Every structure is written in structure tokens, then in C-alpha cells.
Amino acid sequence: MKTGRRYAGQEQADALPGTPPQSRVWRVLGALASLKLSLVILAALGAGILTAYLSAAPATWALAAPLAAFALNLLAAVATNPVFRRKTPLLIFHLALIAVILLLAAGRLTYLKGQLELAEGEVFDGQLTQEESGPWHPRRLDVLRFSNEGFTISYAKGVRRGATRNRVAWAAPDGSVQHAVIGDQDPLVLSGYRFYTTHNKGFAPTFTWYASSGAAPVTGTVHLPAYPLHEHKQALEWTPPGGKTPLWVMLQFDEVILDPAKPSEFRLPSGHLIVVRAGEARYELKPGERVSLAEGVLEYNGLRVWMGYTVFYDFTLPWLLAACLLAVMSLAWHFRGKFFARPWDKPSTGTS
Amino acid sequence: MAMDWEPLTLWVALVVYVLAGSLAIFGGVLRTRPEKAVLALLVLGLLLHTASIALRWERLGHGPYITMFEILLSNIWSLLAIYLLAYWRIPAIRPTAAVVMPILFVMMGWLLVTSPHEGHLPATYHTVWLFVHIGFGKVFLGCALVAVGISGVILLRGRRHAGNRFASLPDDSRLDELSFRFMAIALIFETLMLIAGAIWAQDAWGRYWAWDPLETWSFLTWLSLAFALHARVAYKVSPRTGAVMVMAVFVLAFLTFFGVPFVSTAPHKGAV
Predict the structure, then answer these.
(1) Does residue B147 sit in the same domain as residue B255?
(2) ipTM of this predicted structure
(3) Is residue B132 located within the same domain as residue B245?
(4) What pLDDT is attached to residue A298?
(5) What count of other Cβ atoms lies within 10 Å of the Cβ of residue A22?
(6) Same domain (yes/no): B94, B158
(7) What is the dihedral of CA B49, B51, B53, B57, to 10 degrees?
(8) Are B232 and B152 in contact (CB under 8 A)?
(9) In chain A, which residue's Cα lies nearest the Cα of B213?
């Protein structure tokens, strides 16, 4: 019998008890378990990573195929090679590697990554501005709620962003309102969904729209482009609810919010105007002022800030960490046993 | 005018390192073994280097892990610290200093032409995972450097001009065994570095892995290391082939550590 996967000291006659030596299944498993095949798969994985890295289009297959082959190779090795019955750390290491690959696959099938924006005082309603998810993602996002209670961001000299402190509130399962400060390293975790603040934030004029059709007034915010990233483009085209004519809205202020010459903090301008353009007409609004347009009346209520968040869901995270730690600890255990068994400067006896 | 101790201690440390390295190289060429002098000089250099880093840390309020100057400054320190430990504990491999020190000379030269300006500490760096991730990375590269020193001797022995200058070291098969033991330890610490980095990335950027340039090349380095260790078991490669594989892994690791920050536009700049 030849398994193909040989370790130093392994006997040629190794076989599972009761297994016919020439069984076809056994030969296939032996070939799958080959150490040399492992090398080919590692090389294929490296090539797959380079392909995915250099390719403009998604190349998941380039990683998935070698990883699947690697899992089969490891499983066959564990099933057929008696060295794993003798060397517990090596067995644990290989099982942990298999677990890592399976968990990675489970993670890719069930993950969710997305983005959202909330103005100060707004409540997240389950809607994302962008998202991607695995085909088996158990969508529980729609029932999650939290509100943005405002934030502070410090800037060092040269407009270099410092700590972000975002106050958030949400309702606990018992109905009580919970508060927390998130930002930078500290996400808000709700039902496995991790909400992170981002560098993306800006100003949000708040309007109430009274449609001439008689529909109920609608109050909402317009999220202007991120600040200070688009410092000189604080304008946006926007169509009021139920309307057809787009409006062009611009925030205008003269003061320096983030002074490159000294430390500063992200804040609202102390004085500002909102410029509204509807066709050829131009209006300037201060908080509390309103303007009559063809399709209704637009009332400007005031300026707020908005924060961009990313949301990430992957239920495998703690299991993946545990499997990785188990793999590395068992590998260290294996090497320790191997190295302590024989000093490096003593001749090899032919066994590992 | 008050003396600026920070650059002064660094300059003196570098001069002492160069003296130690030169002594080791000339010792190899002249077949003398000035090992105690080399050891003493390396210890002195490392103490001065430590003092310079401590002064900079105190002045800036953060450790040496932001700018390229700081990356080189701290990596020369950690590589020397790990090599010094091996040099002290394994006297049989001390002639490998003639291989290792020139690599460090290149890094020292690079350090001297790099601007020592102050960098901005990003908000995501205020975490213990910074130290865990960087610490594991430094042990990984240090172990790989020791293996490179040993592998360099194996490869040099085969050259005609090397003569019997490394005859005092153990035979190739034993050096190969020791070299791969260091590579095995390097694999453990590189794996830990990747795990700690993934934990940090999850907190800092909301994802544990995104195949950014540094993550990609770090994983390729990990794969190459795993490949080299596996190939040694699978094919029983000769010490010379093993030495070539060690060199290849180190080159890839070196380019990942010090090359990717130049080409990457991702937030993960690899300031380790």
C-alpha cells in the first residue's frame, strides 16, 4: 500500500486496521493525502491570490478552488495517515486548518458588508446605501434600530483626524434605552451586526416639504458631500418627496472649520446660508425661512451633521479566531515536541 | 546650547554596530574569532540604540511605528536584539555575523538617508493590538534573519573563494536543521502576527481581511514559508536547496515589510 503522504519514520506498511490494502477508495484517499499534492495546492493558492490581486474583476474561484482542494487534501491525510494517531498536536493542527477553511467558506456564504448614513437625531431603519452579502445571509438587519446622538472628532494641526466619539442609543430587548459611545476601534454590536463609524461625515441641512398636492408634510435631511473631503463642493441636487423638479442645494459659510494651522474640532459653522436653485430661480434661506416653489413650499429648519457607518456581519468571527489560535498553538506544540526530542546539533536518527 | 542626545546616541550606536559587523567580517576573512569583542560591541550598540528610541518615544509620545524612519529604526533594533540573543545563546553559529551584519548595514544606510520627521498617529493606533501585531512581526522577521545567516554560511561554503573560512561551524545538515528550526519559529510568529493583525483590522476598519497590498503580500510570505517547511519534509531537500528556500522567503518577507509601504495607497501602510 502506498498513501503518497509520507512522514519521516512512517512505516511502508501503514494502513487503517481492517482496510483492504488494495482498495480503490483507499488508493484515491492515499493519492489525495499526498504531501507532494499539498505543495502543489499551496503553490496553486499562491497563484490564485496573485491572480485575484492583479485581476480587476472578482476572482473568488481563484481562491475557492485551491482552498477546497486543500481541505480535501487535509481530510484525506487525517483519514489515512497513521502519523496523526501518534502525534496528537499534528492531528489537532490539521483539524484546526480544516475548520478554518470550512469557517471561511461559511463566512463567505453568510456575511454582510454595507454602508449607511445617519444625521444627528436620525434612527437607523434597516436601509443601507450600499451592501454586499453572501447568498445565505440571514437578513435580520431590518428589525435593528439605533440612533445617532451626535459626535465629536478632534483634528491635529494640518487637519489630521484624531479620535471619533459618536454617541448612539438603542432599545434593549427589555425595552430599556441603552447609550454608548462608539468610534475608531469601538463598534456598536447589535444581533451580531457590527456598526463602525467612518471618516465619512458632513453637514445635513434639514427641510420640511409641504407639497402643493396636499400630501402630508415631510421633514428630512439632505446629506451634503463629505467634509472636509469635499470642502469646496458642499452642494447637491435633490428632488423633494413626490416632486419631479430637482432642486440644487448648497451650504455657504465663510469661516474656517478645520484650521490647518492649529488643532481643531469638527463642528457646525456658527453662521451659514442655504442656497436653493430651482431652474433659473435662486433663493437664500436661513433657519426658519421658507420658499414657495412650483410643486410646494420648502422650509429650511436648520443644519445638522451626518455620520457614515459601515456595517459588518460574520457569525464565524469568534469561531475563526478560536480555530486559528488552536492551529497555531498545536503547531507550536508539535514543533516543541519535535525540537526537544533531539538537539539540533545531534545527528538525525531518521525519525521526526 | 543643550546637546541633542537622541540623534547622538543613534549615531554612536550605528558606528558601534558597524565596528562589530566589520570585526565579524574581518574575523571570518582572517580566520580569527573575535566573538567576545563582537558580542560586547553589539550589546553596547543595542543599549545606545534603545536609549535613542526611548528618547524619541518620550519626545513624540508614541512608539517608533509611524514613518519609514521609525519603521527602520525599530526593525534594526528588533532584528539585532533577536540576532544578538541567538549569537549569545548559540556560540556555534557566531561566524554567521559575517552574513547577517551586511544585511543590517543596508538597513542602517537606508535609515541614514531617511527623513526623521514626525508622523501623525492615526486614531486607530490607540490599541494594544498595535503592540501585539508589531511585536509578533518583529520576532518573525528576527527568526528569519537568524535562519538567513545560517543559510548564508551553507551557501558560501560551496563557493571556491570562501575556502574553509566557515569550517569551524557544524556540518551543513546540522546547520540546515537549525536554520529550519528558526524558520518553524518564524512561521509560528508570522501566523500570530496575521491573527493579531486581523483582530486589529476588524476593529479599525470593520473587516478582518480585505486583501489590501500588505495583507496580500504578508499572506504570500506566510504561504512561501509554509511551502518551504513542507517541501523540506516532502522532498528531503539538500541543505543547499533548503538554504536557497530560506533566502527566498526572507527576500519576500523583507519586500513585504519594507517595500509594500511604498506602493500601497491603502490605509494599511504596514508601519511595523
Answers:
(1) yes
(2) 0.91
(3) yes
(4) 97
(5) 8
(6) no
(7) 180
(8) no
(9) A53
Confidence of residue A7 (pLDDT cuts 50, 70, 90): very low
pLDDT tens-place string over residues B190-203: 999 999 999 999 98
Residues B94 and B210 in one domain: no
Q: How many helices (H) and strands (E) does chain B have?
A: 9, 0
B248 vs A: CB within 8 A: no
* Rounded Cα–Cα distance for residues A125 and A136 (Å): 22
pLDDT in tens, A82-139: 999 999 999 999 999 999 999 999 999 999 999 999 999 999 999 999 999 999 999 8
Q: What is the pLDDT of residue B246?
A: 98
Range of the domain at B6: 1-117
For residue range B135-147, what is the model confidence (pLDDT) as tens digits?
A: 999 999 999 999 9
Predicted confidence at residue A352, as pLDDT, reads 40
The CA angle B103-B105-B108, to the nearest 5 degrees, is 120
| Residue B31 DSSP one-character state | T
Q: Is the pLDDT of residue A350 over 80?
A: no
Chain B residues in contact with A347 (beta carbon < 8 A): 173-174
For chain B, the domain total comes to 2
For residue A65 the three cell numbers come to: 478552488
> Which residue(s) pair with A249 in the sheet?
A236, A276
Which residue on chain A is closest to B194 by alpha carbon? A324
CA of A216: how far to CAs of A4, A211, A247, in Å? Answer: 76, 7, 20
A contacts of B177 (beta carbons < 8 Å): 344, 348
* pLDDT of residue B269 exceeding 70: no
B106 shares its domain with B132? no
Q: What is the distance in angstroms between the Cα of B237 and the nearest Cα belonging to chain A? A: 13
Mind listing the pLDDT tens digit for each residue in B26-60?
988 887 889 999 999 999 999 999 999 999 999 99
B137 and B75, same structural domain?
no
Nearest CB among B191, B203, B216 relative to A53 is that of B216
- Alpha carbon distance A201, A195 (integer Å): 15
CB distance from A273 to chain B under 8 Å? Answer: no
Q: Say whether both B85 and B137 belong to one domain.
A: no
Cell representation of residue B163? 575556502
Which of B62, B96, B117 terminates a domain? The answer is: B117
Q: Are residues B162 and B272 in the same domain?
A: yes
- Which residue, B88, B117, B146, sits at the end of a domain? B117
Nearest to B258 by CA among B129, B125, B109: B109
- Nearest chain A Cα to B130, which residue? A185
